[in-house]
Amino acid sequence: MNGGNTTATIRGVIVGVLISCLYSVFCSSNLTVGIGRTLLENDYEVEIYEKLEASSIVCIVILLILITIAFEVSKEKIEDSVSKTNKPIIESLFGEMTILGFLSVLIFFLMKSGFFEMLSTELFGNEEHEPLVEIVEQVHFALFFIMIIFVIQVLVLAKQGMNTEREWLKMERKCHNSAYIAKITTNPEGRDDEKQLLYHALREEFINERSMDPPFLPTSIEHRVPADFNFGRYLSISLGNTAAHIVHLHESSWAFFIFFTIVVYVIFIALDLNMEVFAWTWAGIGWLSLLSDIVFIRYLTKLRNSFAATLPKTVDKCERMEDQPLLDGSYKLPSWCYIDMDAYLAGRSWFAKKLSPHQPNRQNACFWLERNGPEFHLYLFQINLVFVGLYCAFLAVVIFPAVRSEFSSSLLMAYTALAILPMLLKMKDMQWILTIMSQVGCMGTLRNASIEATVIREETTSRVIRGFLVLEKMHRIAENGFQARTGNDDSIKVLDGIELEQIKKTFDSFDTDASGYLSRDELENVMRGVGFSLSQEQVQQLIVALDLDGDGMVEKDEFLHWYKSHMGDDDTTIKERAQNLFKLFTKEGNDDRITIGEFKTRLDSFPVGFTVDDVGEIVRAIDENGDVMISLKEFEKLLQNHYPAHLEV
């Protein structure tokens, strides 16, 4: 869903709410005026009252419009506050809120047409008292309450998802520190080290892309993702997509709650409409739901561990196959490799065969419902999300008002704590469940090639952006002169392994002949290739700035030293750098838009192999107005998304 669809969704919701509110205002105003007219004695007072009524309606409409504006502003701030990984969650959330708009419009027309009044008279036979209208309004309020709880849960998940993303990216960087990994492998200390080792094991298995058949050898290097693949980013995108899919409620989830409503109704009837007993039964249902979450978490944790290459362990109903060799004496296969498929298939139930007629592989055998396991996980999580809202709404709208007069103050407080506690614990576990679900849903045979391509494209784009930033810095040095850094090396930036590897790749993209150093001609050609025209004196000035030993060549170590010493040593902001680079992409620096062709021409200055489709995807990711072109504002967004963190000022 793009920004236009989201805005349309919000407008639909607001229109529905406005119609319902205005309908209520007019109804109450008409009723008040009718009563007022019977009390007032003359036409003058009636006229004053009608003017007061009209003024009140106008004020209420203005207030509702102001609330709508505040809602729109809040929605934009929410979208800006979440990472791009979690934006699909917010978009799906606003999409689901469309239901509220349609529901409000439908109820408005039914109320206006007198349908509920007529039906109430037919059912209850009392024209003066219309209980069905009150019931509809109460149910309508309960549905809004459920949606409010649902929205709160989704926003909390989005916020926690951002924290999870930061944690994964942090662990990704640590995976490139071989000394650290060796240390915690030998002597892990605490939960953080255990989480890091698990992440490292999952990452290794993902990159190896192991064969499903014995002896479970990894895929050849040329057919797998690169060793420096950003697995943390891959998991983050998967997490966002999984959450967005969950937020978009399916018909089967609503069908479950129809069934659940009928079951609750039967229980209520069986209890002879005893609200006190039913209140305790409802709290019991809440605790049973929490218990099911605990079982689900234990299952998901075991499932995730089965994809990690650790000490050999077996899964339920499976035994280790002693005749299947390990790769070597120290590297242990993940536990799914030890499933005896002959024994598993022989003990497979008729229900499993009916539900999934295709023969499962070893990884499928680890899931509940085999091939349908990932979809079943999403279904269970959707039910969990809605159930929390339904449970709380029923407590607030039905149970609490009914038992308030029946329970003593102390008993009511005890019941409230007992009834609410399981929902608080469930909401606390939601992110943990979602995190594991997203991990097991993108591993092994479930790996997502589209997300892989996105991550690789993002990494390549970041490398190109870094190259342009380096060249922009070199151009300013060539134009303004170079001032050598004085003092010791304490001011030189300390970069981690990932950053150093990225800088080395930037150097390699400049080193067109792969000689290991940059000659004067290579520097001049790469500068001219991206649009920087330098005089011979300026080129010489640049060589002096980079060449430490004075041999006329810039070696990789010299380039790294210059980068760590001088990149980001000024007060140039991202916006200023974007303005400088934007001129390189536009024709003669006069246009205010960059076409895909112009963008690709400049990107091709670096040998990274971008296709037209790749460039199109990059443009679509930042294109705010849908014109398939890049404005200066959108170009700033591109730099912001891929700007090296250690260069930010």
List the helices and strands and how they pair.
Layout (H helix, E strand, L loop, with lengths): L2 H37 L3 H39 L5 H10 L1 H16 L1 H10 L6 H45 L2 H9 L3 H19 L22 H17 L3 H20 L4 H31 L35 H6 L3 H6 L17 H31 L5 H32 L8 H32 L16 H14 L6 E2 L1 H10 L6 H11 L7 E2 H11 L7 H12 L10 H8 L8 H11 L9 H11 L7
User: Would you count the extended β strands for me?
Assistant: 2
Structural class: mainly alpha
Runs in which pLDDT lies below 50 for 5 or more consecutive residues are 1-15, 22-40, 311-331, 485-492
- Give the SSE order as H and E letters: HHHHHHHHHHHHHHHHHEHHEHHHHH
Helix content: 55-70%
How much of the sequence is in beta strands?
under 5%
Report the total helices: 24
Can you summarize the main beta sheet?
Answer: 2 strands, antiparallel
Q: Kindly, what is the distance between the CA atoms of the first and last residues, rounded to a whole number of angstroms?
A: 34 Å
Mean pLDDT comes to: 77
**Gyration radius from CA atoms, angstroms:** 32 Å
Shape designation: globular
Strand ordering within the main sheet: 1-2
Task: Walk me through this protein's architecture.
The chain is mainly α. It has helices spanning 3-39, 43-81, 87-96, 98-113, 115-124, 131-175, 178-186, 190-208, 231-247, 251-270, 275-305, 341-346, 350-355, 373-403, 409-440, 449-480, 497-510, 520-529, 536-546, 556-566, 574-585, 596-603, 612-622, 632-642; strands at residues 517-518, 554-555. A two-stranded antiparallel sheet has the order 1-2.
